[in-house]
Amino acid sequence: MDRVVVKTPRLVLKRFSIRDAAGFFELNSDPEVLRFSGDLPFASIKEARTFIRAYRQYDLYGFGRWSVYLLDTNEYLGFCGLNFSTAKQEADLGFRLMRRVWGQGFATEAGFACLRIGFSKYGLEKIVGRAMPENAASLRVLQKLGMTYEKEFDEDGIRWVQMSIRRDEFGNFYE
Length: 175
Ligand SMILES: CC(C)(COP(=O)(O)OP(=O)(O)OC[C@H]1O[C@@H](n2cnc3c(N)ncnc32)[C@H](O)[C@@H]1OP(=O)(O)O)[C@@H](O)C(=O)NCCC(=O)NCCS
What we know:
This protein is an alpha+beta fold. It has a domain at about 5-125: Aminopeptidase, CATH 3.40.630.30. It has 7 helices and 8 strands. The chain has helices at about 20-30, 30-35, 45-55, 55-60, 105-120, 135-145, 165-175, and strands spanning about 5, 10-15, 65-70, 75-85, 90-95, 125-130, 150-155, 160-165. Helix 1 crosses helix 3 (about 45-55). The longest helix has 16 residues, at about 105-120. It is globular and about 40 Å long. It starts with a strand and ends with a helix. Bound molecules: coenzyme A (COA). Coenzyme A (COA) binds next to strand 5, helix 5, strand 6 and helix 6.
C-alpha cells in the first residue's frame, strides 16, 4: 500500500509503518527530544513496532501523525501530523524530529502541509497545538504556522500552552 500522504519541497510524509520502528525507537531514545513531551522512551524496537501496529488514528479519522522522511535520501527524520482527541473533541498538530536536523525549518515545512491537509481534505474547523511553556522551539513553530495563543492548562501535573488556528485564519495567513 502506498504510504505517501504528501510531499513538500524537502520532505515526504508517510503513514506509520513497522519499517519506521527502528527510527522511531532512536527518536524516542534521545532525552532532549522527549524533554518537553511528557512521553517515555520505547523499551525496545519491538515496543515501537507494537505501538505502530496498534496505531488507530488513520482507521478512525483518516488523518493521524505521519512519519517524516527527507525527500532526497529517504532518511527517517521523525513524525509530524494531526491527532484527534475524543475527550477534547479537537485535532492537534504535533511534531518530533531527530535532534541532528533541528533548526532547518523542517517542522515548519511539515507542519504547514499537515495544517493544509487538515483544513482542506478533512474539513477541520480548527487545529490546536500544545507545548510546555519552556518549549520555545515548539511554540515558535506553532507561531510561525500562524497559530495564536488560546489558553494554558494543567494536565497530569504538566502545564501546557495551547495555541490554535481556524480554517479561515489559515486561508488569510497564507494568502
Ligand atoms: C520542536 C521541533 C520539532 C522543531 O523542529 P525544527 O525543524 O527545528 O523547527 P523549525 O526549524 O521549523 O523552527 C524552529 C524555530 O524555533 C526557534 N528556536 C529553536 N530553539 C529555540 C529556543 N531555545 N528559543 C527560542 N527559539 C528557538 C528557531 O530559531 C526557529 O525559529 P526561526 O525560524 O524564527 O528562527 C524540534 O525542536 C523537536 O523535535 N523538539 C523535540 C520534540 C518536541 O518538543 N516536540 C513538541 C512537543 S509539544
